[in-house]
Specification:
Elements (H helix, E strand, L loop, with lengths): L1 H34 L5 H56 L3 E18 L4 E18 L2 E10 L4 E14 L2 E9 L3 H4 L14 H4 L4 E13 L2 E13 L1 E3 L15 E16 L5 E16 L2 E19 L3 E14 L2 E16 L4 E11 L9 E14 L2 E12 L7 E11 L1
Parallel strand pairs: 8-10
Antiparallel strand pairs: 1-2, 1-17, 2-3, 3-4, 4-5, 5-6, 6-7, 7-9, 9-10, 10-11, 11-12, 12-13, 13-14, 14-15, 15-16, 16-17
Length: 420
C-alpha cells in the first residue's frame, strides 16, 4: 500500500512539472500573439494556444483525480490497518480465553452364550453385558473424565473411572481420582475397541482392575524410540479371603478399596515405529492386604505383588500380542502362593470389515501341583465391524481344565456392540 502511495506522489510531481511548463508556455504564447502583426501566423499561434490550454485543463483534472485517489487509498489503508488491529485484538482475546468443551459418549453390548459340556449338559443365556456412559470435559490444561457402567441387565451399577488430569506438557501429566490399572487389556477392554469378547485370564484374576489415588504419566522420544512412563499410587484392597493353597484361585480377592492399605505401581512402555510398530512394556504392581480365612480375619498381613510383561507387534495386516503375568502373595507364618498366566494372540485383517483372531492361553492360580484352578483355553473368533463403532463378534472357546475331576467343554459366544 505504501508503494502505491509513493508511485502516486511521483506521478503527481511529474504532472505538476508539465502543468507549470505548459502554463509558462501558454503565457509566453499569449504575449507573442499580441505582438504578431502577420494575420496568417496569428491564427496558427491562437490554435496552438487553445491546444495547450486544453492540455492544461486535462492535466489539472488528472491532478485532481490523483489527489482524490490518494485520499481514498489513505482512508482505505487506515481502515485496513484498523481492521487488522481489530482482528489481532480478537485473536489475542481467543488465545487468552479459557476454552471449554464437554462431550458425552458411550457404548452398549448384548451377549449370547451357549455352553456344551461332555456330560451333554447345555447352558444358554442372553446377557445385557454392559451399558456405559463417558463424560469428558476440557478446560485449558485441565481435563475431567468419568465412566459410569450398568452391567448384567442393570443389576450392577458402578463407577469404573472418575479423575481430573492436569497436563503441563507431553512429558508430564498429573491425574487424581479413580483410574484403571494401566495394563493393555484394562485400558482396551471396551467391546468396540477389543477385538475379542473374552478377555485373557490375567485380567481381573491376577492383575487388579482399578484404584483410587494419584498417577503421573509422560512420554519422550529417544532416537527412534518413544518411551512412556506411568507411576501411580493409591488405596489397596481391604482383604484377601482364603489365601491358603487350596483356595488359591481367590488370591487377588474381590475386596473393597481401603485407605489403610496402599498400592504402588510403575510401568514403562517402549515403542519402535521403525519396526512397523512394536510396543514392549514392563509393569510392576504391589500392595499390602489383610488376610481372611472363610471370612474370619487373621492376624497376619500379606503383601501382594504382580509382574507383567506385554508386547504388541503390528504389521500391515497382522497383529501379534504376547503377555506373561505373575503374582506372589507373601505373609509371615503362611506359605507363599503364586499365580501366573500367559497368552499369545494373532489378529488378521484383509482390509475389509472382517477381523479374524486366534488366542492360546493358560492360567495356574498356584504353581503347586495341587492347584484347583489350572487350565488352558483356546479361542477362535470373528469380529465384523459394520462401522468403526458398530459390529458383531462370534467366538468359539475350548476350555481344558487340568484337574482330573473336570472335563473339557466348549462355549460359543456372540456379542452385538454399538458405540456413540
Amino acid at each position: 500500500m505504501q508503494s502505491i502511495l509513493l508511485n502516486q506522489t511521483f506521478m503527481k510531481t511529474i504532472f505538476l512539472f508539465f502543468l507549470l511548463f505548459n502554463l509558462n508556455l501558454a503565457s509566453s504564447l499569449q504575449k507573442q500573439i499580441q505582438n504578431i502583426d502577420n494575420p496568417q501566423l496569428k491564427p496558427i499561434f491562437q490554435q496552438l494556444l487553445t491546444i495547450i490550454e486544453k492540455q492544461n485543463k486535462t492535466i489539472q483534472k488528472q491532478n485532481q483525480e490523483i489527489i482524490k485517489l490518494k485520499t481514498f487509498n489513505k482512508n482505505k489503508l487506515d481502515n485496513l490497518e484498523s481492521e487488522i488491529q481489530i482482528q489481532a485484538d480478537e485473536l489475542e482475546e481467543i488465545q487468552n480465553k479459557k476454552d471449554f468443551s464437554l462431550s458425552i459418549k458411550g457404548y452398549t453390548n448384548t451377549d449370547f452364550v451357549f455352553k456344551q459340556k461332555k456330560n451333554k449338559q447345555q447352558i444358554d443365556s442372553f446377557d445385557q453385558a454392559e451399558t456405559t456412559l463417558f463424560l469428558n470435559a476440557n478446560k485449558d490444561r485441565f481435563r475431567f473424565f468419568s465412566e459410569i457402567e450398568w452391567s448384567h441387565s442393570g443389576t450392577n451399577i458402578h463407577q469404573e473411572r472418575s479423575w481430573i488430569e492436569y497436563q503441563s506438557n507431553s512429558s508430564l501429566k498429573l491425574r487424581l481420582g479413580q483410574s484403571l490399572i494401566p495394563s493393555y487389556w484394562n485400558l482396551n477392554h471396551y467391546p468396540h475397541v477389543a477385538i475379542s469378547i473374552n478377555k485373557p485370564y490375567a485380567v481381573g484374576k491376577i492383575m487388579p482392575f482399578n484404584y483410587i489415588g494419584a498417577q503421573i504419566t509422560g512420554q519422550n522420544e529417544y532416537k527412534q524410540a518413544n518411551i512412556e512412563y506411568i507411576l501411580y499410587t493409591g488405596n489397596g484392597i481391604d482383604s484377601i479371603d482364603n489365601p491358603t493353597p487350596s483356595f488359591a484361585n481367590s488370591l487377588n480377592g474381590t475386596g473393597r478399596d481401603k485407605n489403610s492399605s496402599k498400592a504402588f505401581g510403575q510401568k514403562a512402555t517402549f515403542s519402535f515405529p521403525s519396526f512397523n510398530h512394536l510396543d514392549f512394556s514392563v509393569h510392576h504392581y504391589k500392595d499390602s492386604r489383610d488376610l481372611n480365612y472363610l471370612g474370619i480375619p487373621l492376624l497376619n498381613r500379606g503383601s501382594y505383588e504382580v509382574y507383567q510383561i506385554e508386547s504388541k507387534f503390528t504389521s500391515k495386516r497382522w497383529d501379534l500380542l504376547l503377555s506373561h503375568t505373575q503374582s506372589k502373595l507373601k505373609s509371615q507364618g503362611l506359605r507363599s502362593n503364586k499365580q501366573y498366566s500367559s497368552y499369545y494372540q494373532v489378529n488378521y485383517n484383509d482390509n475389509s470389515p472382517l477381523n479374524y483372531y486366534l488366542r492360546f492361553e493358560h492360567i495356574d492360580a498356584d504353581s503347586s501341583l495341587n492347584s484347583i484352578f489350572d487350565q488352558s483355553r483356546q479361542l477362535i473368533g470373528l469380529n465384523y465391524r459394520y462401522k468403526p463403532y458398530t459390529g458383531v463378534k462370534l467366538e468359539l472357546l475350548t476350555i481344558k481344565p487340568k484337574i482330573l475331576t473336570n472335563s473339557s467343554y466348549n462355549e460359543f459366544w456372540t456379542s452385538l456392540y454399538f458405540a456413540f
